[in-house]
Every structure is written in C-alpha cells, then in structure tokens.
Amino acid sequence: MPLPGVELLLAGRTVDLRARVLVAGVVPAPRFGREGEVLATAATLRAAGADLVDVSLPPRLSGPVARSGDTPVSVLARSPEEVRMARQAGAQLILVPPDALPDLEGGAGSVAVIVAELSELPAASELACGLGLPLAVDVTRWSGPDAVGRESAAVALGCRVIRTSDVRRSRRVAEVMTALLAARRNEELS
User: Fold this and answer.
1) Is residue 38 helix, strand or coil?
2) DSSP structural state of residue 48
3) β-pairing, 93-96 with 110-115?
4) Residue 150, phi then psi, degrees to nearest 5
5) pLDDT digit string (tens) for 101-148?
6) Which of 22, 80, 113, 116 lies in disulfide reach of 51, CB 3.0 to 4.6 Å?
7) C-alpha dihedral, 179 to 180 to 186 to 189, nearest 10°
C-alpha cells in the first residue's frame, strides 16, 4: 500500500513520492581510496539514470560528492553516529533500517526507512507511515530476475526509493512502476 502524501526535498525541489520512484545508484568502495574515483563513479551512475547517488562511505569520500552539487547524495546509516556523519557530509537522503530509527534525533537531511527483505515491509511500512517517512528497498544483493521481481513487488507495496548496484535495470523498473502508479492515481481521481 503506497504511503499517502510523502514528499522529499532533494536538490532544492520537492519530489512527490505518491507516484514517483527514485533510483539510488550505489558507489562501491574505491579501489585506491581516492576521492576522484568516487566522483567519477558518481558521475557514471548519474549518466546511467540514477536520481540519487548512494555514497555509503566515510565522510571524506561522500562529502565531496555531496558538495559537487551534481546529484543528490544518499547514505545508508545503521547508527546515530553514522546518521550524524552523513548529515555533516551533506547527504540529502539518509536511509535508516527500522531497528535504528528509535535512536535518531532530529536534524537536517531527509530520512527514509530502508529494508533488504520484502518480509520486513509490513512492519517497516507501519513505522514509516506513522512517522511520515518514505520507504526504500535495498536490492544490492540481488541480480537479474530476482532483483526485478523484488523491486517491482517492493514498489507495489509502498517503497519509493530503490537502492541498487544496477542503475539501468532499476531505472527501467522504476519507469514502468511509476507509469503504473500514475495510471492508478489518475483512475482514483476520476
């Protein structure tokens, strides 16, 4: 069930997630630990169609991408300390597992509840809805038809951010699911 009226502020604009699916392309750890590698990978992900670049790396590597202003940055954070560091680095969306949400404090940067398994969605959806937060799904462990199926099911169940290592595949899924959500929303309005 989609979350009603959830919006995100990204790159100075409001994104209505009622009928929009965002793709967060994951920047892997750089081979040589250099900032230039991370910036180049972020540019490649953006060119492939990522709405967000997920730089879940230390702030010295995620910060330059956030400061570049080319693409909104998301960060997966599993503790209050990681959330604090992500905010300081300039992350615009912080993806937090449900078990880490109670420890969060307010502050800048949008937060989304992220799950890795579809079985976690009902409880996460209830929590996210109660807090007015969007849902995200992490499909980085999956590939091929398994990932497509999980992404599609997750979006149908309310997830509006897909965290992926295959941006092109997820972009196609997001476009199809966005079209279906828009059609369903138009049908509900008429």
Assistant:
1) helix
2) T
3) parallel
4) -65, -45
5) 766 655 545 899 999 999 999 999 998 888 888 999 999 999 999 999
6) 22
7) -140
